[in-house]
Amino acid sequence: MDTLGSIEVAVRVAWLAGAVAFVIGLIRMNSPATARNGNLLSAGGMALAIGATAVLILARQLLGEGFSATGWVIILLGVALGGGLGLWTARTVKMTAMPQLVSLFNAVGGGAAALIAIEDYLRLASLGEPVRLDHNVFIVLDIVIGSITFTGSLIASGKLQGLIPGKPIMIPGGERGRLALAVITLIAAVALFVTGTPNVALMLVILAAGLIFGVTMTLPIGGADMPVVISLLNSFTGTAVAMAGFVIDNPVLIIAGALVGAAGAILTKLMADAMNRSVINIMVGGFGGGEGVIGEAATGGTVRSIGVDDVAIQLAYAQSVIVVPGYGLAVAQAQHAVRELADLLEERGVDVKYAIHPVAGRMPGHMNVLLAEANVPYPQLKEMEDINPEFPRADVALVIGANDVTNPAARRPGSPVSGMPILDVDQAKSIVVIKRSMGRGYAGIDNELYSNEKTGMLFADAKQGLSDLVAAVKAL
Amino acid sequence: MIPEDVLLLLNNLTIFTLAILVGFAVISKVPATLHTPLMSGANSIHGIVLVGAMLIAAEVNDPIGYVLAFIAVAFATMNVVGGYVVTDRMLQMFRKKPAAPKPAEADAEA
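The joint structure predicted for all components is written out below.
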């Protein structure tokens, strides 16, 4: 074997090592204690794979086809620009805005995967030779999935950022339009497969259809459903990258892409399950109004309003308090205020725990991140299965901006939230709900918890209400 | 006798299928607490597409190709760098209280 051959082998071994690092990194993300280390391991594997690729390109040029300065200029400029932008946004983003940034990174990843197939197709077209069927199939799949995830993730990101209204935007004839796009794509793809001769125009039709499909797929979905959509699109990007791996016969792209494709699929299902909805339902549905939905006043049962001072006394003289933070807390960015209140209570000897529903916040686990950012120690964050048995022993359950995940109606059939796993807040000895109004939650139904005789409603914005509580507890 | 291109396809399909199964096995064990960092971490892993973008960029030789390759490399690098940095920022917050924990807390944990 010549020198180039040996280098090719070494590079492939490095790629394999990178893939191993990705898998072990993900395994280490099982536990908060090893998660950071796992992410660093994964990043190390990535650096190794990318470095090895640079060596491979250089070796091929110097020992074979000749040095190409243009190629290197493109690579270095692209790395500088993309790396700079990525580093800057990732360093400066507020943790509450993190889901839209993840969606943005997802968009560019999908875009890059689609571009690889497009470039490869243009290269084949310039050669003018017939394209093998399997190669054709992977190119088309890469372009379709990559373009859908590119525009879809951009729209999702824009919705979360507030650049595009979060409420569902219904496109007239939307479903028929999407069906038409799918049919066009299918016809164009079959035409490409059957003839086998490269046809750039048809490829562009497929690309355009995918880009439009991504927009029309995401626009009708409400802001509250976005986490599920981002997760789904994350899975799509992984799959697109795996397809790009088939296109250029690169095993590390196939492995990493398939890993992420599986990860996103599992996460999507977990999230949809926790919201008691099916993924299909969300994609077709177009409801889920998101934040700021103010429904009518609750009916069936009287609601007891309670003042800040009363709540402060209840909390300060309790033995154990369980805080139930929800979407409203994230929207009001009240995570620091809640930590301040919890610290104050702990100083008075109150045992404070947080009950985290799997879908609290805007993404699964998002609430944990927000509270971690506010320096809440993670052992205090209890997952649903662990905290539910503790509610009957809790003196006060403090519900902040959480709604449907506390609704006891979920235990009975016949309600839109039926079957959704909920936090057993109603079993606490006393319940305080901080809420701006009697508005309904995401499911659009009344919450029976609010008319429970043990429940006091503190009508306030989450952040304002918590600051008032802190002041009131201090004054005691 | 299997032709070489078919053998390559079969190899790739084998790798693809097994990697999907590994993905399912690894991810299903992650607690909900870490789902957001996990999603973000998985998001950075598909930044591996940079390897493909670089390999393509080294081979293009026409203006359209230059532009597409440049965008692909820039996109992919943004995915990799931004993804890992933001995931690390999140995970760095997942630690026990930096200050000395109060005894009451330790009791509550036990």
